[in-house]
Amino acid sequence: MRLFFVTADYTFRGMFHWLRPVPYVVNRLLFPLVQLVFFALVGQYGGSQSLSFYLVGNAIGVATLSTFGVSQAVADERWQGTLSYLLASPAPRVPVFFGRAAYHIVDGMLNMAAAFALAVLVFGLRLPLEGLTGLVLSMLVATVALCGVGLLLGALAYIFLDATLLANWAMFILLLLTGMNIPLSELPGFAAAIGEALPLTRSIAAARLYAAGAPLDAGLGLLAGDLAIGAVYAVAGYFVFGWLELRSRIQGRLEGV
Question: What's the alpha-carbon Rg for the chain, to the nearest Å?
Fold first, then answer.
């Protein structure tokens, strides 16, 4: 546990060491505001759903920022020249690998909280008090599941060499296929099937239920499904990382594959 939290702390601070508190807060407010305004206005004037559909979907959807942070936290070990130290250390790999996502869960929650605050203050979104517990739970599950995607993308970046490119692809796929802006029922069958296999899809659906005042147990099944999918992605990332480590040792190249 100590190794897990030390890894989480130093990884996050190493990524954001250049940010002072004010720029960090502005950066975290600007992205949710731009995403909310863009998709809310497009949806309101050209979409088939109510404004709240787009507001809730994109307030949860800003958690995609966690995908960028986690994937870079894993992949940047190579670019910063620290991968050889990591692979040569006797530390157990599970806390070292998964610890890289821990602080990004908190960061993702802050992003979504800012997005919901903007949705309420700027667009007048009404959130019933009885649904707030479910909304917070949906936010937590969404960011945990997306951190799993980030861990997989970070490991794959050792092969494709560009974590940012992979994360950008993932972000646009999530924007399109998770029901964030387009209901799955309006997508082609193959696209809807892909959406069902992605994290965030069920968290967004559950958040919309809670935003409509549904009881807590109404969305628990959806959230459990999203957690399971996120866990699959995270475990896949761990095994990809382990395979690349083994391959690197065999080839004698700890900084590459």
Answer: 19
Residue 49 to residue 46: CA distance in whole angstroms: 9
Residue 162 domain-assigned (yes or no): yes
Q: Which residue has the higher pLDDT, 173 or 102?
A: 173
The model scores a pTM over 0.85: no
Taking CA 85 as the corner, what is the angle to CA 84 and CA 87, rounded to the nearest 5 degrees?
A: 65
- In angstroms, rounded to a whole number, what is the distance separating the alpha carbons of residues 170 and 183? 18
Answer yes or no: is 137 within a domain.
yes
Of 108, 77, 98, give the one whose Cα is nearest residue 234.
98
Quick check: is 257 in a domain?
Answer: no
In a domain, 104, yes or no: yes
On the 0-12 / 13-18 / 19+ scale of CB atoms within 10 A, 89 is: exposed
